[in-house]
Amino acid sequence: MASFSLLSTTLALLLLLFLGTSSAQLSTSFYSNSCPNLFTTVKCTVNSAIQNERRMGASLLRLFFHDCFVNGCDGSLLLDDTSNFIGEKNAAPNRNSARGFNVVDNIKSNVEKVCPGVVSCADILAIASRDSVVILGGPSWNVKLGRRDARTASQAAANNSIPPPTSSLSNLISSFSAQGLSAREMVALAGSHTIGQARCTNFRNRIYNESNIDSTFASTRQGNCPRASGSGDNNLAPLDLQTPTAFDNNYYKNLFNRRGLLHSDQQLFNGGSTDSQVRTYSNNPGTFNSDFVAAMIKMGDIKPLTGSNGEIRKNCRRRN
Fold first, then answer.
1. What one-character-per-residue DSSP string does the chain give?
2. For residue range 272-290, what is the model confidence (pLDDT) as tens digits?
3. Model-level pTM?
């Protein structure tokens, strides 16, 4: 009997240890007492940034994606390189592409004024991405919080974990599956491309060499993206031709009409297993919104640092 009691106690302690290091600690009310003005402060700063530049909403949302897909939602993407530290900002998916770091700096500065040393940069990214979606007309959700900031980052992991715009459907499904996200959740999260822009270098091959593309759309895009590599590489085009700064379901309507800007976009509607889901989202914005919210919440649960792990950075760009 004594040995059974000891075993039960040991198992209980192990369970508590497991729960203490898992996303179970994330809570929508995590800062209710320690920083009651957090949400107002973040949204005010995000709103100001988006009013100044509508594209910024997409940039902030993208930062959260690129952070979570590399060793979890831990703010690692925000760390600057130093003489003895190589972070993620210059990894291939982020170099000359990831932006909005100055806005995150502003948010952090304003949050520090109302509750110094309390809120992580990882959580600021999570809230800012939600606020960006809402401000641009998309759905809202209660953000789970309690993440702490990483003390390290991995350029190699960033290069390997974030699916490139040349990805096939099977590549996309595999990349998201590696993060614990289903194919359905992948298609829902891809809807974030209803806002934002892409560089010519990322869609040049599609508009000149692919056949599953609307010819008029291809011609339009060719007008701002020369065929020759190295010419106009950084010229921008909207991922959603109709409403590039409004969060809606036009992205899926574009795919249905073979007007996906990136190769990876059109792969979602190209005679494969995700065609029916694209068709559903193109006809039912409510279904898209609800699926997107659920997928964003689940993505935010990817391997967070909680409890005594990590730190609360004073400056999002560097370790304490």
1. -HHHHHHHHHHHHHHHHHHHTSGGG-BTTTTTTT-TTHHHHHHHHHHHHHHH-TTHHHHHHHHHHHHHTTTSSSSGGGPPPBTTB--STTSTTTTTT---HHHHHHHHHHHHHHSTTTS-HHHHHHHHHHHHHHHTT----PPPB--BB-S---HHHHHHHSPPTT--HHHHHHHHHTTT--HHHHHHHHGGGGS-EEEHHHHHHHHHH-SSS-HHHHHHHHTTS-SSTTSSTT-EEESSSS-TTS-SSHHHHHHHTT--SSHHHHTTSSSSTTHHHHHHHHH-HHHHHHHHHHHHHHHTTSS-B-TTSSB--SBTTB--
2. 999 999 999 999 999 999 9
3. 0.91
